[in-house]
Amino acid sequence: MPRGRYSLHDPHDHTPLAEEHFHCAPGPSGWRYVSQLTAPSGDHLGSVDLALDALGRPLRVELHTASWQVRGAALDGVTWVRTDPTGAHATEGNARAHAFTGSSPAFLVATTRLLRLTPSAPATRVRLVAFTDPVLAPRTVDQSWTLVGREAHATDNGPLTVDEYQVTALDTGERHTVHIAGDVVLAAPGIELEDLASPPSVFD
User: Which terminal CB of the chain, N or C, has fewer other CB atoms within 10 Å?
Assistant: First the structure.
């Protein structure tokens, strides 16, 4: 069960935004990721709880910030409910999308579990509902993912396979690179892996 800490920063000016303390693990039904976010000041910012089924579809996503919370799942595309902390103001949403995304590294791993790309596969288009910080406002985004390389690196715990993905935002054409080993993001725009207490999980 990997445990560790990511630092999140603005990908443009590198302003520190948060630290995300996480643990995750595959299980009989798929994969689960749980994390707590803290501000650079040490204040609690929110939490992430994501569970995937064996095919990489979101069984459950639960996001919390100081002012909003979202619960969602794969249902008729994807369906979610966004509420304030008191639950007095709730809105339900639905979109013909494949899954969810957001600022947490968990969503990058989740997208790779959904797409199951191979190095020889062509670019694959995916539609996602993104929840933007800090108000968790939903918006639909279209991306193209390509697995451009796979390398094995020697470590004290045996070889570590690192996948390099190229991700393209189809509305702007902006491209970026994501490096993932198992269920841990090693590097991505705005994301740095600062600490890892145990090796990444190996998926079948």
Answer: C
Query: Residue 87 corresponds to which tokens in the numbers above?
Result: 């639950």
Q: Residue 52 to residues 28, 142, 179: CA-CA distances in angstroms?
A: 11, 20, 20
Is the confidence at residue 114, as pLDDT, over 90?
Answer: yes
Of 51, 94, 81, 45, which Cα lies nearest the Cα of 65? 45
Whole-number Å distance between alpha carbons of 146 and 164:
9
Name the β-bridge partners of 69: 64, 83
CA dihedral 77, 182, 103, 149 (to 10 degrees): -90
Q: Supply the pTM of this predicted model.
A: 0.95
Alpha carbon of residue 5 to chain centroid: 14
